[in-house]
Task: structure prediction
Amino acid sequence: MTVGTRSTPAVRAASGRRAGARGVSRKAATIAFLSPAMAVIGVFVAVPIALTFWISLHDWSMYTPLSEMSWRGLGNYRDLLAGQEFFTALRNTAIYVLLVLVVTIPLALALGMLLYFPKSAGKGLARAALFSTYVVPAIAIAIVWGALYAPDYGPIAQAFAAVGLDAPAWLSDPGTALVSLVVFHVWQMIGYYTILVIAGLTQIPLDLYEAARIDGAGFWRQTVSVTLPLLRRTTTFIVLIAIINAIQVFDPVYILTQGGPAESTTVLSFAIQRSAFQYGMAGQASAMAFSLLLVLIAVAGAVLAAMRRRS
Amino acid sequence: MRITGVISLGAALALTLTACGGSGDAGKDGGKQTISFLTHWGPEQVTALKAAASAFEKKNPGVTVEVRAVPFANLLSTLRTQGASPGGPTIAGIYDLWLPELVRDGLAAPAPAAAAADLKANWPANLAEGVTKQGAARGYPNEVDLYALNYNKKLFAEAGVAAPPKTWDELVATAAKLTRRDGGKVTQQGFGVITSWPAGVVHPWLSLVGSNGGALLDGSTPKLDDPKVVAAAELYARLVKEGSTQSSMSSANANTTGPYLDNFVNGRTGMIIMANWWQSALKEAMGAKYGDVGVAPIPVGPGGTASAPVSYSWLTVVNGKAPAARQDAAWKFLAFLNGPDSGRNGSSAMGDILMSMGILPSRTGDLTAHQGDLSDPFIAAYVAELPNAKPFPSVLGGEAMSQAVQKHVENVVFGKETAQEAMAAAQKEVADVLTKAGA
Result:
């Protein structure tokens, strides 16, 4: 009977109303809790992206209000595809990103393991020293690297000379300028990625290593069969962040090479800045920026999809 | 750097400033006015400018002058992000290449009748003409810069060269004599060029073009495929091929310093074409060795009859977006700053500031007042070349044009293009740039 009483239409209706009220209240709470974050994302991410796209459909020198921009439709995108500048910048950016990834990821993994597994007293100090390069502003360090890279009379060139080798011209040669910037980037960012690797290593249960050792696995076997597979999520994150950071490189290019010599270090971020602020072609710059965003989304999607398939 | 944010943030900033622009005194025409002066000068010159502003404020109690200094590399971007706002800089010191765009977009206000008359009476006619756009004077010309051959007299003596080259043939021969090798490696280059800096690449090269009877533009039509222009690119290619010019010693950085400067001041470059403004940099970097620096006219090419260095100027403009009363106050301050009562010995304060940097002032009275300083051998050589100077073309799209030329001249220096290929490509690109800019 009690059950029957509970299941009367009136009770069901009351229960439904309560569930509905709970649903409404949960919705309201969800909106209330998410609104601040969504508002911040909307104002600082969605609106600028939409504005960038809107500007990319216009001609605009930035000297006039947005309301005075002249409509160009997809003309800026057509110009990008017709000219060389965008593709030169895209090619340089792709080479830069690839070089950064090829060097950074293995190096960060190696350094992370080196600074996590051995029981030595100086580990904390070494981690702090490694991370410190990431903390110092890039502009300040870029100036120092400019002096280090000076051809012939710079400290690095002198070091080469001391062992009887001819140093490359570093930033002064189109063949080595981009690689020189990669070296600088790796030096600056490696500490950050290493710390991420160490954070990932702390999540791997030590029991697994013990079990592996009991099964007769040596260091390499443990690394290949335990460490690297269980670091996959961390590695995926590092790869993504490294790609994004590398694609967005700007400060050292602006300070050290201004895109030269002979356009060899003109990466997309610099080309965007140059178009907007030096040439007064903010529409074209926005078209480049929006295209870069699409490239970033595509690359990130591809990396995530590849990683998911593997796992 | 958030790429997507950069442009849009600038846009949003401009929009916000436009919407919210104007300080508290904006609407009080005739009341107290605060004007701002945007400059790229260094601390010493900013101090002198502030002193002139204080003197002006004493005579004009209703006006306050604020000085905003930014590095040279940030000057144009500051103008772009802040210029459209009434709260942006009221006065800005600008490179004349930027003027056409500023005039088109209404940021360079036409000078009032008194300032226009002042210009006509006290500046050389060609300079007053240079700041006149769309039928009105747009500002006060300040510094004038032009190019000349700088050479190291000590290296010349060591190489047994008695005098600087007067022709391109002599330039090639002298550069070869000045070049030193240690085994296969060049340790001292005869003739230095600059890379990775648009003006540093284009102006010296174009000075050689002009001295060969060529020109970058004929009106708004590029002339880069003219044989007289191609010949200057071939000259660079020859110097590089013979080892007299080392591309690895050429680069500049964002501060317009770097290896090209270091190599000259350290006696590893025999000759280089540079502008008068770098005198202060040479003095500072070379110390006692500054005395080794000699200056000579640009060597004349086979197609030319006389040295024809490139010149360019800087001017101060008043923001056409500022409220009328603030614009009036700004013109009044500029008249004072450029007038004979603000400086020493009949010079304007502007003339004194420019001379403190080794830069040629443009006001006739300033040239007279600083005659003693202008007789300095380094400066005097540039002053002597002023009548021969050809102004760099100030057209819409000028900055993009300049960088297109830079790219192809650098391609010649680094052996990525032949002289003919480079000039043919530059001709096409510059034509596209100018068409798109509406020059």
User: Anything to note?
Assistant: Chain A touches chain B through 59 residues (CB under 8 Å). The first strand of chain A starts at residue 58 and ends at 59.
